[in-house]
Amino acid sequence: xxxxxxxxxxxxxxxxxxxxxxxxxxxxxxxxxxRFNVEIDRITKYLIFFFENYLKEHFTEEEELxxxxxxADSMSRKVVEQDHQALKEMAEQIKSHPxxxxxxxxxxxxxxxxxxxxxxxxxxxxxxxxxxxxxVIDEKMKTSHPxxxxxxxxxxxxxxx
Length: 161
Prior knowledge:
Layout: H1 14-35, H2 40-66, H3 75-96, H4 100-128, H5 131-144
Helix pairs in contact: 1-2, 1-4, 2-3, 3-4
């Protein structure tokens, strides 16, 4: 059996991958909070803060800088756009009616979405885009993200007391 060598991540996609890592930490924190039976309102406040301040912008950047390079009827584009829409709807639902079931659905969908983008979509884009197109994306991301994101949330509910 031949082992597939992972594709090296393009410089243009590194900031997206860093954002994904940041979002995977959100998922871990929420799961820890749920595991520790933290009050749902504390978890909800953090999830909505994170969504409003990080994920919405990240989704917009992906849609405007990456997805536009895929054909409108491509399966990958349909999957990621449907995921974004579903996550936005779940965030609104959580915001108005905090619910453990929907929070679990949100983090599971977000994790699946990130894994798909990292394992499938980014490889597809790296094959599809030429160096000039990748450079344009890279420059736009450097402008919008001059520094890495930082989480300054003051209520670390995910740390067991």
